[in-house]
């Protein structure tokens, strides 16, 4: 809804003229103002709004037909704001001109006359926003599946999950054999007792924090529980799970340090920091664990010592959660039905195919259904599948499944065309939100710290932009709002609107997606929080190098779809850009000082308290004169032109007397950037003084519609990506703007954002690059599980995302869950929140139930038809 509102001829619209009021303008000046002054604040009850009386004139006037006509605006419930437009469809609702202009900027007056927002089901007044009936109705739109569709989807689920079920059953059968050996009894005489637990509780392994789904070992004397994977690793003397704890120290040197000033010896805030440093050596802990916690010769496992969470007295006995042989029986039934249905293996399925011309050697973009996102040599995956929402809704599900299975991002355009047009303006969302809190915690992207802020001030900055006292853009983020998985409860209309516009609802619908395996969990079971979740963040058109509005490199444990619902451009003035450029020079000088010449000073504060996994400081023993590969990437005294290119986006200023050469190399080709000149499929980024020319605003407007820049890495490139980040981690900053003191896991830490320069060096050193593309307003971006990705906002954006578990990528979910086990005990990503193995079991069970009923029904019809034919033959 970015189009300007068109004015209509007043003579064609029935109006009532009333003297205008200036109360609305006065209210806007109040910093604590929340929402429209013509409506109650969100912290007031609806009853109070209904009781409020207007004392400005009569509510009705006499029309041309002599009858009394109401002049009350439905939106603001006022009658003193001038001309109103009456709806010719319902003949009951009317809207004043100020409300039409302010709250419906993309809707002309003729549209109000033809059918008002109430008739169109997109009214954004407080009363309508909080109506549950319409929201519940919208959530059920177009979500009825035919019997044929259910049959095909159930076959697809079984075919995809059968290998995982077989592997899961094999692990359990091995443990049962060990139990038989421990007890010296045959399998028929070994009874496994059921564990005592509530159906709505999750059971986690005490050692690795993985979710326990069925068979596990539990102490006979205490509550210690161990998963089968840990049992296997302990017997092999190779526990992979990390029992250490790590807390990284980031020192706050104050706001001046963030903008390039020398840091003082005494940190800000009386020398305190958010986290105390405690790093136990993982290698030493693993040695200690294996030395004092060993299985018995027959395979029995004693309870670990008290310092490891156990009691050291009891023995870990085998227990089950489901009935003892339920999974084995489930597997037998699955194989039987798969044979009847003649199901093929997923990776050999000829039905999963791609009709994109890029796989046939055709150099076109398939009528706009492909978008170039990479320039890899000798590769057939440089283009991403990019259908319009109409194509997604019709017959392209198998095409979508192919790209999802291949682990490729997918972009669906124009998804808002299928919505009802409810406004996603930030103040509309705030007025709709059913909560009374006026402040919220927002994230400052410069120091990566949270601060409490008035919600109206945050949204005002979203629309207009904010700068700090140094003249640097203040880019703030509001993640997961409303919080605690309450999006549909706090914003029911917006939640329903979001669900309606989602493409490929078979996978994405939060309540009724048939192919979303997470929805197969029973009602009495704790379910993972998959969204929807809103992410509201400021943006800036060009890459700043420090304090950019970014979502750092990370995984999502499942598949996810992210829809850009609203954007607001922030075009800086020439003066603001000049101040930014001056600060950039300070940042580059600081990076040069700390990363190179100051290496013997700044990192030592980290060294004193943060050792690495070998018990030494991260920088202890580091010799910059000997480590040529690292030194060359940071050295500035003897850098040549090629080396100078490495620093431009990272922020390392090259002091070179030959300014003509630097200027000559001040242009380069990059993948995408909003503040760029588009030339074919390439973008030319300018760093010279022409950036501050008079045509700057026009150049920003050329990229209108682009809201967020995405970088998505291929699964097969992850090892090289991790190697690059581990090698160069000292060149990145995080909390308080401090350089990273260490890296635990390059992706799960969520501490890296690769700038344009780092992406160039990544390709130069390791030969890999991500898919890079700009997400536009109304586009849905699908990211398959297992693909690391990062985002930078080019404008202020409101994104809404929902996660789902697809049959195609369930193995990636399992792989990521196994990675979580190897993280330190107190790592944010350690907990297994998805419980994918539990999802697999319930999804297979339900698919088999449906296929079994369908098969029996089909066989019954065939038998009945044969019997009828036989009877007819008898009486001939």
UniProtKB/TrEMBL annotation:
<keyword id="KW-0539">Nucleus</keyword>
<dbReference type="InterPro" id="IPR003347">
    <property type="entry name" value="JmjC_dom"/>
</dbReference>
<keyword id="KW-0863">Zinc-finger</keyword>
<feature type="region of interest" description="Disordered">
    <location>
        <begin position="1"/>
        <end position="63"/>
    </location>
</feature>
<keyword id="KW-0805">Transcription regulation</keyword>
<dbReference type="Pfam" id="PF10497">
    <property type="entry name" value="zf-4CXXC_R1"/>
</dbReference>
<keyword id="KW-0862">Zinc</keyword>
<dbReference type="InterPro" id="IPR018866">
    <property type="entry name" value="Znf-4CXXC_R1"/>
</dbReference>
<feature type="domain" description="RING-type">
    <location>
        <begin position="73"/>
        <end position="120"/>
    </location>
</feature>
<dbReference type="InterPro" id="IPR045109">
    <property type="entry name" value="LSDs-like"/>
</dbReference>
<protein>
    <submittedName>
        <fullName>Lysine-specific demethylase JMJ25 isoform X4</fullName>
    </submittedName>
</protein>
<comment type="similarity">
    <text>Belongs to the JARID1 histone demethylase family.</text>
</comment>
<dbReference type="GO" id="GO:0032454">
    <property type="term" value="F:histone H3K9 demethylase activity"/>
</dbReference>
<dbReference type="Pfam" id="PF02373">
    <property type="entry name" value="JmjC"/>
</dbReference>
<dbReference type="GO" id="GO:0008270">
    <property type="term" value="F:zinc ion binding"/>
</dbReference>
<keyword id="KW-0804">Transcription</keyword>
<keyword id="KW-0479">Metal-binding</keyword>
<feature type="domain" description="JmjC">
    <location>
        <begin position="510"/>
        <end position="821"/>
    </location>
</feature>
<dbReference type="GO" id="GO:0005634">
    <property type="term" value="C:nucleus"/>
</dbReference>
<dbReference type="InterPro" id="IPR001841">
    <property type="entry name" value="Znf_RING"/>
</dbReference>
């Amino acid at each position: 809804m970015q189009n300007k509102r068109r004015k209509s001829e007043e003579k064609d619209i029935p109006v009532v003229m009333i003297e205008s009021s200036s109360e609305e303008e006065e209210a806007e000046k109040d910093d604590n103002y929340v929402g429209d002054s013509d409506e109650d604040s969100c912290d007031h009850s609806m009853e109070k709004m209904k009781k409020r009386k207007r004392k400005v004139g009569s509510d009705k006037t006499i029309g041309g037909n002599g009858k009394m006509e109401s002049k009350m605006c439905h939106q603001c419930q006022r009658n003193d704001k001038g001309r109103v437009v009456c709806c010719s469809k319902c003949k009951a609702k009317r809207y004043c001109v100020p409300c039409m202009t302010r709250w419906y900027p993309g809707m002309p007056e003729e549209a109000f006359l033809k059918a008002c927002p109430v008739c169109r089901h997109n009214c954004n007044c407080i009363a309508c926003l909080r109506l549950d009936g319409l929201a519940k109705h919208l959530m059920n739109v177009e979500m009825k599946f035919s019997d044929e569709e259910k049959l095909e989807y159930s076959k697809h689920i079984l075919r995809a999950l059968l290998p995982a079920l077989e592997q899961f059953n094999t692990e359990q059968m091995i443990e049962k054999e060990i139990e038989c050996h421990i007890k010296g009894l045959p399998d028929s005489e070994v009874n496994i007792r059921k564990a005592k637990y509530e159906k709505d509780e999750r059971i986690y392994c005490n050692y690795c924090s993985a979710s326990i789904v069925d068979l596990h070992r539990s102490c006979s004397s205490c509550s210690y529980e161990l998963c089968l994977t840990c049992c296997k690793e302990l017997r092999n003397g190779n526990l992979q799970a990390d029992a250490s704890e790590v807390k990284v120290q980031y020192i706050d040197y104050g706001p001046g340090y963030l903008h390039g000033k020398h840091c003082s010896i005494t940190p800000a805030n009386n020398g305190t920091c958010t986290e105390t440093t405690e790093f136990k050596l993982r290698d030493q802990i693993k040695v200690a664990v294996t030395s004092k916690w060993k299985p018995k010769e027959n395979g029995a496992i004693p309870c670990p010592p008290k310092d490891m969470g156990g009691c050291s007295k009891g023995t870990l006995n085998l227990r089950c959660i489901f009935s003892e042989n339920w999974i084995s029986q489930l597997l037998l039934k699955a194989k039987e039905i798969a044979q009847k249905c003649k199901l093929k293996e997923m990776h050999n399925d000829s039905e999963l195919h791609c009709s994109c011309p890029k796989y046939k050697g055709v150099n076109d973009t398939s009528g706009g259904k492909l978008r170039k996102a990479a320039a890899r040599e000798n590769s057939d995956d440089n283009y991403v599948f990019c259908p319009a929402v109409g194509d997604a809704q019709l017959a392209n599900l198998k095409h979508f499944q192919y790209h999802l299975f291949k682990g490729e991002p997918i972009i669906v355009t124009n998804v808002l065309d299928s919505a009802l047009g409810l406004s996603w303006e930030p103040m509309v969302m705030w007025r709709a939100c059913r909560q009374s809190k006026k402040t919220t915690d927002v994230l400052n992207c410069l120091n990566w710290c949270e601060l409490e802020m008035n919600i109206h001030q945050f949204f005002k900055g979203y629309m207009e932009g904010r700068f700090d006292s140094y003249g640097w853009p203040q880019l703030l983020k509001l993640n997961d709002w409303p919080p605690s998985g309450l999006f549909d409860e706090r914003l029911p209309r917006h939640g329903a609107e979001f669900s309606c516009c989602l493409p490929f609802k078979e996978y994405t619908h939060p309540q009724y997606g048939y192919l979303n395996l997470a929805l197969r969990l029973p009602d009495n079971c704790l379910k993972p929080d998959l969204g929807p979740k809103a992410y509201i963040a400021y943006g800036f058109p060009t890459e700043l190098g420090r304090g950019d509005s970014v979502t750092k490199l990370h995984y999502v444990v499942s598949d996810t779809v992210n829809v850009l619902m609203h954007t607001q451009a922030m075009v800086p003035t020439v003066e603001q850009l000049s101040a930014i450029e001056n600060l950039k020079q300070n940042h580059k000088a600081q990076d040069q000082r700390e990363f190179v010449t100051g290496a013997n000073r700044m990192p030592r504060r980290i060294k004193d308290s943060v050792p690495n996994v070998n018990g030494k400081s991260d920088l202890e023993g580091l010799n910059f004169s000997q480590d040529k590969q690292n030194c060359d990437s940071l050295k500035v005294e003897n850098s040549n032109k090629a080396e100078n290119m490495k620093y431009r986006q990272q922020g390392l200023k090259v002091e070179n007397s030959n300014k003509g050469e630097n200027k000559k190399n001040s242009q380069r080709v990059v993948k995408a950037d909003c503040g760029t000149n588009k030339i074919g499929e390439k973008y030319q980024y300018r760093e010279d003084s022409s950036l501050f020319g008079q045509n700057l605003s026009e150049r920003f407007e050329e990229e209108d519609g682009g809201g967020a820049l995405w970088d998505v890495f291929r699964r097969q490139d992850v090892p090289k990506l991790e190697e690059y980040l581990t090698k160069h981690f000292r060149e990145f900053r995080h909390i308080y703007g401090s350089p990273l003191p260490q890296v635990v896991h390059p992706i799960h830490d969520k501490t890296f954002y690769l700038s344009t320069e780092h992406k160039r060096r990544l390709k130069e050193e390791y030969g890999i690059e991500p898919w890079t593309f700009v997400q536009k307003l109304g586009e849905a971006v699908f990211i398959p599980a297992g693909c690391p990705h990062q985002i930078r906002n080019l404008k202020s954006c409101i994104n809404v995302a929902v996660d789902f578990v697809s049959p195609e990528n369930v193995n990636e979910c399992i792989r990521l869950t196994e990675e979580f086990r190897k993280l330190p005990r107190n790592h944010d990503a350690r907990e297994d929140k998805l419980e994918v193995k539990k999802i697999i079991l319930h999804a297979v069970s339900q698919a088999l139930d449906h296929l079994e009923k369908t098969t029996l029904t089909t066989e019954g019809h065939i038998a009945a038809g044969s019997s009828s034919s036989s009877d007819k033959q008898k009486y001939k």
